[in-house]
Amino acid sequence: MSGLISVDDARRALAPHALDAGEETIGINDALGRILARDVLAGTTAPPADVSAMDGYAVRLADTKDTGSQLRVTGEVPAGTLPTHAIGPGEAMRIFTGASLPDGADHILIQEEAERSGNHIRVTVPQSAHQHIRKAGRDFSAGDVLVPAGICLTPADLGLTAAGNNATVTVRRRPLVAILPGGDELLPPGSALSPGKIIDSNSAALAALVRSWGGEALTPGIAGDSVAAIRAMIDAVNEADLILPVGGASVGDYDYMKAAFTEAGADILFSGIAVRPGKPTWFARLGQQRVLGLPGNPASAFVCAQLFLRPLMMSTTGPATVFKAALETGLSKAGFRETYLRAVSRQQDGQTIVAPLADQDSSLLRPLQTANCLIRRMPNAPACAAGDTVECVKLD
Ligand SMILES: Nc1nc2c(c(=O)[nH]1)N[C@H]1C(S)=C(S)[C@@H](COP(=O)(O)OP(=O)(O)OC[C@H]3O[C@@H](n4cnc5c(N)ncnc54)[C@H](O)[C@@H]3O)O[C@H]1N2
Ligand code: MOO
What's the rounded Cα separation, in Å, for the pair 225 and 208? Predict the structure, then answer.
């Protein structure tokens, strides 16, 4: 109907245009939250040798079984040095936490369980089992995969990466995504408002989504309602891998976005999707740049970013979570557009329950803040009852 393409066809049309911004190698201190492009390998073994886990004496267990046993202290191994000699029967070596075990030793007598006098120690607590030695390679061995490619780097991953003697990691480059809101009514947050003006909320929400999907967001400002103003903005973001024009996508007299992009040389691949909310969503190529036009209504822009922008950026994030849930309340017959209802899902008695929010108007931000998922309804889906199973998409 009316020249709109289906959600599935839109996804298929977008698939060949998914972003692959390439790889870059960066310092580990800048890598938190980045997507790893190449496995991190251990360049060393940890611990590199059998080491002491306590401050005390490296001994032979057999020499320390009885209270009062005397051992001769033949030397010392502080952490960071290697033992200069082995120990023999009746001998001990002073050792500190993390230091390498001398040959001949098979046990650490902690200093609290020994009494020192000159070059001798006396066992004050009989020792019964080998203890306090960390074996070489207990954590990892040289050549092990420490962090697999594809994951989003956490603080623990970075500690492990460093321990494996890696100062850098190779991560996916962040695609540069420019957000281009258009409309004479829009002012940035924090402005002095005047009659007829509203605040641009889409830029903040979309920039946050872009960042959470591994991209870098550019927000060059708001374009006025004219082809010339929009073209100036297009020129200003020629570095971007993807441009997100927001608003001005529908049929109103001041909806200039597509005209401006066409004039700039863009090739529009589709315009209008049978989806609710988000019908005016469109897609174009401007040379190497991808252009995903989103509707101005905040819920439409947000939902269509989840449905269409996320897959475009998928090479850096992986697919959205889809799950099944039981409806808390019935739903009336669906319209001809594939519909995504903002909803709240929760666990109850081992079951996932989902409830659509009462007001689904696409201008509203409050329900969007409350929602944690979208209920997907296929075009013309029949009415369904409470308890029926529906498909849901987790919201980011
Ligand atoms: N006669 C028709 N009118 C409309 C149709 C239609 O088919 N025929 N489609 C409607 C649908 S569906 C949508 S969605 C909207 C989308 O229109 P646009 O993409 O052209 O968006 P605008 O008109 O520029 O804005 C719509 C609405 O959203 C507000 N807005 C815009 N940008 C922002 C922003 N950055 N932050 C916050 N709010 C924004 C704007 O002020 C409008 O209220 O069109 C319907 N109309
Ligand atoms: O498709 Mo629009 O997003 O319903 O308001």
Answer: 25
